[in-house]
Amino acid sequence: MHTAAACCHRCGSLSRYWRITLAALVVLLLAACQPEGAARQPIRIGVLHSLSGTMAASERPLVDAVRLAVEEINADGGLLGRPVEIVLADGASNWPRFAAEAERLISQERVSALFACWTSACRKAVKPVVESHRHLMFYPVQYEGLESSPNILYTGAAPNQQIIPGTRWALDQLGQGVYLLGSDYIFPRAANRIIRDLVEAGGGTVLGERYLPLGGTDMAQALDDIRRLRPQVVFNTVNGDSNEHLFRALAGAGLSDLPIMSFSVAENEVTGSEATRLQAHYAVWGYFQSLDSAGNRRFVAAFKARYGAGRVTSDPMEAAYIGVRLWAQAVTDAGTDAPAEVNRSILRQSLQAPSGIVTVDAASRHLWKMARIGQVQADGQFRQVWATSYPLRPAPYPFYRSPQEWREIMQGLEMEVRP
Fold it and tell me: Tell me, what DSSP letter sits at residue 232?
């Protein structure tokens, strides 16, 4: 015999059952009324790099690395049940065009994130566009630091992960009479300010400093300086295809044994170039293709299988690749591709990358990364000669000045290179 309470309980349970069933039917009916494939609308990402101009040789491989990551994600089922689609744009090595293309990708193409830029001049042109939309951008190249943004994740090295350890090693191992040679824009000038600080603090001497137009080919004055000043090491912050002209000039002038520490020269700029004729040519990065680890072997094999056995990988390419992978993890964790939600989720991400474990530093929005120094070999690869024992916490503002002091210095440097 049922009590009244039991009847009420049974009726309530049946009522809840029918409410749940009705809700499920409504969801199914609504889904049936959607246009076919609506639930599979792709998540679009903007990939903005120089496909033409002086930076194209350096930046095109980054697009390939991004594409590889996207294809792997899609092969695993995509994100949130949706495929990822690349919307590709050419910044053409022109910084105002980069800014305009970033605006178009965000406002018109409605991309969920930007993967963009190589030079700091490009990044500084795009940064206010990304921030004004409260969007999200991944920047994949080592740089001078002295910057922060709530809307950029920096997957390349901060100064304490590249410029500073590379300079200290070179001063200890190669000599203290140095010559600074760079392209005439903000990264080389800011990097050389940090290098000069370290040289002077260590009792060394900056014998000379010269800047070449971005894309410049005339190395005569730089060679005259080097012959006259006879530095023990050249710190090279030249970017883009100007490097090939520099390496050819040095080799042709009989300076193949002059020690050089390059900060923007990786496997793509070395392979098949005159750089392989320079006998004491070094570079400092967090990743080299020659790293002997299972994760890197898989990455290199996958890249070569996709693009050809003759292709090489590099630190900026790895940083571009892991940027996509970190973003994908953040999208999955957030349950949405909305930039604001992903921007919060990205700060909790860590990844087993080809270079080792990388972790987002929530305070600085940079990655904990290894620092490595390699010597250029005849085959265009780097033989590692030094490395940190563990990933370094990023410090975009070197500790010996306050962030405010660095910002004031940066403002002065920007005035120097303003046309």
Answer: S
Same domain for 260 and 387? Answer: yes
Q: Name the residue range of residue 250's domain.
A: 160-287+374-417
Same-domain status, 153 and 211: no
Decide: 295 and 318 in contact? Cβ < 8 Å: no
Within this chain, do residues 194 and 326 fall inside the same structural domain, yes or no?
A: no
Give the pLDDT score at 30: 36
Q: Give the pair of three-digit tokens for residue 309.
A: 């056995």
* Angle at alpha carbon of residue 246, lines to 315 and 169, rounded to 5°: 50
Q: What is the DSSP string of 354-384?
A: TTEEEEEETTTTEEEB--EEEEE-TTS-EEE
Per the CB < 8 A criterion, the answer to whether 120 and 139 are in contact is no
Alpha-carbon span 314 to 64, nearest angstrom: 12
Residue 196 counted as domain residue: yes
In a domain, 15, yes or no: no
User: Considering only CA atoms, which of 376, 396, 371, 397 is closest in space to residue 386?
Assistant: 371
For residues 397 and 400, give the distance between their C-alpha atoms in angstroms, rounded to a whole number.
Answer: 9
User: How many angstroms separate the CA atoms of 226 and 210, rounded?
Assistant: 10
**How many folded domains does the chain comprise?**
2
- What pLDDT is attached to residue 28? 36
pLDDT digits (tens, 9 = 90+) for 77-114: 999 999 999 999 999 999 999 999 999 999 999 999 99
Q: In sequence order, what are the residues at sequence separation of 6 or more whose Cβ sits closer than 8 angstroms to the Cβ of residue 113?
A: 45, 46, 135, 136, 137, 138, 327, 337, 339, 342
* Sequence letter at residue 245: H
The whole-angstrom distance between residue 193's C-alpha and the CA centroid of its chain comes to 22
pLDDT at 8: 42
The two structure tokens encoding residue 156: 């390349």
Phi and psi dihedrals of 28, rounded to 5?
A: -65, -40
| Distance from C-alpha of 368 to C-alpha of 286, rounded to nearest angstrom | 10
Q: Which of 321, 360, 207, 190 is nearest to 263 (CA)?
A: 190
**Same-domain status, 170 and 139:** no
In this structure, the strands spanning 177-183 and 372-376 are unpaired
Q: Residue 84: beta bridge partners?
A: 43
Q: Where do the H-state alpha helices sit in 202-289?
A: 220-229, 242-252, 267-270
Please check whether residues 380 and 366 belong to one and the same domain: no
Show the tokens assigned to 15.
């009522």
